[in-house]
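hey
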């Protein structure tokens, strides 16, 4: 069972059209769409308890980590590519048989396999998140919350 997922951030944003389309708004929207997709994926893969999304650095001198709960965004240090950072993470990881990498980059995929970690295919990931898209948001609201929202909307729209 996989407990850690390492994601090649910008690579996957550009690999999945529904996420890539968010770039029409801005980069932050695309990152948030990827984060939401990863959370949807984790719902069906309960053994995953850590997700690291690695992005090429923001231009600062040191590595930057954003802790978003289940998902942790890692921005590489200046001059270090996301691909190299993923390989470095694998080199220092324990339990590679419980680690998977999501990327379509051959350099990353080949190193992942050579080190004994698992490769999660982009197609497999995309299929799993597509089937969960509709129910994800609704499952988070209780019946009371839904009723309250409906009441507020009825007031706003003048519906009795």
């Amino acid at each position: 069972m996989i407990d850690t997922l390492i994601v090649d951030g910008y690579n996957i944003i550009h690999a999945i059209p529904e996420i890539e389309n968010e770039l029409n708004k801005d980069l932050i929207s695309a990152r948030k769409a990827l984060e939401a997709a990863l959370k949807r994926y984790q719902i069906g893969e309960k053994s995953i308890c850590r997700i690291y999304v690695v992005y090429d650095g923001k231009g600062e001198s040191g590595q930057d980590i954003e802790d978003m709960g289940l998902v942790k965004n890692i921005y590489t240090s200046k001059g270090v590519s996301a691909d190299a950072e993923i390989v470095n993470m694998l080199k220092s990881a324990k339990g590679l048989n419980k680690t998977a990498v999501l990327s379509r980059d051959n350099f990353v995929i080949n190193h992942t396999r050579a080190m004994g970690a698992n490769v999660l295919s982009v197609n497999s990931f995309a299929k799993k998140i597509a089937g969960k898209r509709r129910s994800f948001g609704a499952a988070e609201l209780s019946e009371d919350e839904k009723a309250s929202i409906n009441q507020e909307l009825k007031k706003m729209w003048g519906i009795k």
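Residues 133-138 have pLDDT under 50 and may be disordered. The longest strand covers residues 50-55.
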